[in-house]
Amino acid sequence: MLFKPILNYPINFKRFFSLLVLLFLSPLVDAQNEAAIWSAGNGYQINFQSGDAVISKTDENNAGYATICDKEGNLVLYSDGRTIWNAQNEVLVNGEDLTSEKHRVIRRPVFVPYPKKEGSYFLIYQYSPKDDYNIPNKKMVYAEINSIGSGGRGEVVSKDILIHSNYHYEPTIAGFCNNSYFWIVIDRNNPVIDYGERRDIINLYKIDENGLNTKANVDSYINIGNSHGYKFSPNGDKICFTYQENVQHDIRYVVADFNFLTGTLYNIRTPSITINYAREFSSNSRYLYYFSGTKLMQLDAVYTSGSRMRNTTIIDIPHHDDAEYQGLGLQLAPDGKIYFTYYGDNNEIKLGRINQPNNPGLACDVELDLYTFESSIDFPKFVTSFFRDKNPENLDEQFPNAGPDLEICSKASVKIGTEGHPEALYHWQPETFIDDPLSAEAVFKAPLLLNSSESYTKTLRVTDGNCWLNFDETTITVLTQPKKLPIDGSWSVCPFVEEVDYWIDEEEKYNLYWLVDGGEVVPGKAKDSIKINWWETNTNASVRVYGKNNFGCVSDTSIFAVRINVELITETPKGPDKLCMAEGKNVIYQIKNTNGSVYDWSVENGQILSGQGTNRISVEWKKDGLNNIVVKETSTTIDTICYGESEPLFVEVINDSLTIQLTNVSYLSGNEIELSFESEKLDFNKHRLRLEIENETGSLHDELPTLGRYHRMNREIYSEILRLKVINLCDEVFYSNPQQTIALKGNQLFSEDIIQLNWNRNQFWETNRLSHEIWHSEQENGSWQKVAQLDDRTDYDFMVQENSLLHLFRVKEINEDKNLESWSNTIKIEIDDNIEIPDVFTPNGDGFNDVWAIRNINYHTFKSVEIFNRFGEKVYECKNEFVPWDGKIKGKIYQGTYFYQITFDNDKRYGQITLLQ
């Protein structure tokens, strides 16, 4: 059976020796011995009873067993999901046939201690019908076991009790408060009409001293299409899993906090990671280890913000090209280390270990190639809390103090919380703006708010990680800070100049505080501006200002540097530096005004209309091209004359007028119209070309022509008046002359084999000599033939020929004076070839229905038409070509009923005719 080892393999001789030394030097006083023996499948066992990993092999070849040991690490029970054995390899009373032979056991079962019931356990196991892999038919059930019943042999009290069904993945189980109760987490697959798919809901089941409660807590906060990979941390305060919203969405990986008091998930975060399959938490529940491709990764999962959740590559495992995933299993062990399997160079399965998984980054210390397995193995599943770090003594319940609600200014810092217990686990949430979210006493660093105040509620959580959990919160209101105020004024001034103006442009309801270096403020009542008397020469003079709002919050100080010197640095004039000739009147140019300064302006190729001597002038430009403006500044104080000349402002004056001639408009194939136009100055890189269209009702709209063509889409054909519109660089609009399209229409006269055509002239050619050509085709993509040459008339009757059912027409209008041609649109007329035989006619000479005519008969090959009187005598006959009957028999008309017979190549038709006078 399971625990009759035939071989003992220390990991290797040297390492095993060193591990024994380490064991005696550092005994595992806090070892979680309930999981001291692992059955890994195919006869492999890993035993931690000595405090370190010893691998042994039996002659069995199976998928492995679930095991449970007592607190000293002695084996109590093991099971394969069908049978339960005790440590003496005896089947428990009622311990067989946990499920019927019609079912297959899926995944490894898990033993869970019955809280406060010494020697009793639950076995959580799963099965489904054989050869049926449908999710709805999967079941998770339990058996209740008394391991000391039946005289110490043990007995199964009950079995096959349904907990859950219709799910994707196996459960994860954690125990709390010295395993006084447990939570089982598993998905449930529910049909959802909205998605047309199936959706997972997280279900949670509690086990306590009253047994296993099969009524689930339901957590539907996350929109899950399907999910898998559920894994509790050893403390049970976190859970990890994988999900998709639906099959079209990307896979997401979730780390969430778990409130073990209420059985709910909170602080749900989705870090940007990719997990192959296996995942495992460190024994302190802080770090999540997982495989991603060929890399073993570590995620700092204690934080809730993505910026703090550090994701570190621990090692890149030497990979085998044939392996889909390089890393296989990950399992925390009673020695506090994490063991993992991976593929070696020759596709064999190797054993590796993370020696210090509670340490961040590379300090976790990874070892590879500890052992090579001869066949595949699978780490068993346990209650995750068997592996958690335990304090030597239970920590008394702590209650956090987040402190009072506070108000602070933007960018200020304030302490929140109070000193906490050194062994308790504290966490501020959300973590934004907090310097150390894992400290009971932290510093909140307020963000910059300029527009409105905002309140931030911070929750302080404290827990021992597994038994008690408490919260407190505080609200910090961050008050707005006045924004930094820009100063404007003269930055180059003459020594001892007086009453120079400085101001802020924005209207703000702040109390302003002005400061001056190198001069003095002239007393006054204005708040948003000041006047300054400047002193002697100074290259480091300045004006400063800051604001204080009604909250008492102060803005950053603005500094405006000022140069005091007899040599003035006059600024370059400001104003339009590129404009059109049409816009060249009353153009304003200016510089900042300095009290006491006189300004002399020079304008090349322009006239100063007003403002000479001041800091602001109005100019009329006289000539296009590149011109310039220069201003000279003079300032006189008590004993000093200061002078400066600006750099020139170059002004480009553009003359962008143009003309455009629309010479012709002509239909191409389909509804596309070609536009022929001429313009010497039109530049498509600078100008915008539009087409203005006037329809038959006189309404206008614009289109954007493409490569000189206008596509009418599938609108009804009617004549349109077109003119081009050019918008130049100055947004001036120039129009071309108009042209009119030729719109052709046609209809069939059914009484006669005639198609009537009519069209319009281009009204803008009416003073020219015009002629028209009628073009005809009998195929959609066939050749065209000119069938008529006309003068300036606008109608034509086309005689339909025998056996011709499809007719296409175009008209070409020719302007002989201008040597131009404009085509009309193309029309298509399909002849109805159904034979219509009248049953009555009245040959009375009134011009209506005077003959017996058969419509469309010429489109069919026939041999003869014969008409008989009521005595069977033939009174009319025509052969090969139909000639309508005028009703006469030997020159006379006799009213009555007649009978006809029409003979075609493959058919005959019969009927009667009534002749009335």
From TrEMBL:
Signal peptide: 1-31
UniProt keyword annotations, A-Z: Signal
InterPro entries listed in its UniProt record: PKD_6 (IPR045829), T9SS_type_B (IPR026341)
UniProt KW Coiled coil keyword: no
Domain PKD-like: 574-634
NCBIfam families: Bac_Flav_CTERM
Protein name: Gliding motility-associated C-terminal domain-containing protein
Species in which this protein is naturally found: Draconibacterium aestuarii
